[in-house]
Amino acid sequence: MRKVVLEIEYEQGDKVYHISKESDEGTVLGWEYNSMFTEIRYKVTFGRRAEDDVWCYSAELIDTKQF
Fold first, then answer.
1. What CA–CA distances, in Å, run from 54 to 1, 21, 39?
2. What is the pTM of this model?
3. CA–CA distance, 33 with 59 (Å, rounded to integer)
4. What is the CA radius of gyration of the chain?
5. How deeply is 23 buried, as exposed, middle or buried, from its count of CB atoms within 10 A (0-12, 13-18, 19+)?
6. Which residue, among 45, 66, 43, has the nearest Cα to 56 in the 3D structure?
7. pLDDT at 42
8. Could you read off the pLDDT of 21-60 as tens digits, one per residue?
9. Residue 53's closest CA among 20, 27, 14?
10. Which is it for strands 61-62 and 53-57: parallel, antiparallel or unpaired?
């Protein structure tokens, strides 16, 4: 049996920004782990509508707004 230890960079409720310039503040809604590719994706909302929710990898997210 293989055990996997996950290091989660962002928790539910964390405030993040997309790496694109002038990104609005987003909120992490949750995360999922893909064992086939051994990677974690975060579901982030950048607004109030369902279409404002996106899946991002940690490399696409930052803690502070970029200008």
1. 33, 17, 16
2. 0.86
3. 15
4. 13
5. middle
6. 43
7. 98
8. 888 999 999 999 998 888 999 999 998 888 889 999 999 9
9. 27
10. unpaired
Measured between alpha carbons, how far is 18 from 62 in angstroms, rounded to an integer?
Answer: 6
Write out the two tokens for 14: 């964390």
Q: Which two tokens stand for residue 42?
A: 């975060």
- The two tokens of residue 32 are 């999922």
pLDDT at 67: 76
- Separation CA 56–CA 17 (nearest Å): 11
Pick left, alpha or beta for residue 15 (phi over 0 → left; psi -120 to 50 → alpha; otherwise beta): beta
pLDDT at 45: 96
Phi-psi region of 13 (alpha: psi -120 to 50; beta: other; left: phi over 0): left
